[in-house]
Amino acid sequence: MKRVLVTGANGFIGKQLVAALEHDYRVTASVRDNVEAGSNTFSKTTEIVSTGNISDKTYWDKALAGVDTVIHLAARAHVLADTAVSPLEAFMETNCKATLRLFRDAVEHGVSRFVFVSSIGVNGNVTQGAPFTEQLQPNPVSDYAISKYEAEQQLVSAAKESAIELVIVRPALVYGKNAPGNIARLAKLTSALPLLPFGLVDNRKSFISLKNLVSLLVLCVSHPAAANQVFLAADTETISTKQLIDTLANVAGRKVIQVPVPVGLMRSVARLLGKGALASQLLDDLVVDNTKARERLGWKPEEDLQSTLE
Question: Catalytic positions, please?
Answer without folding.
Answer: 144
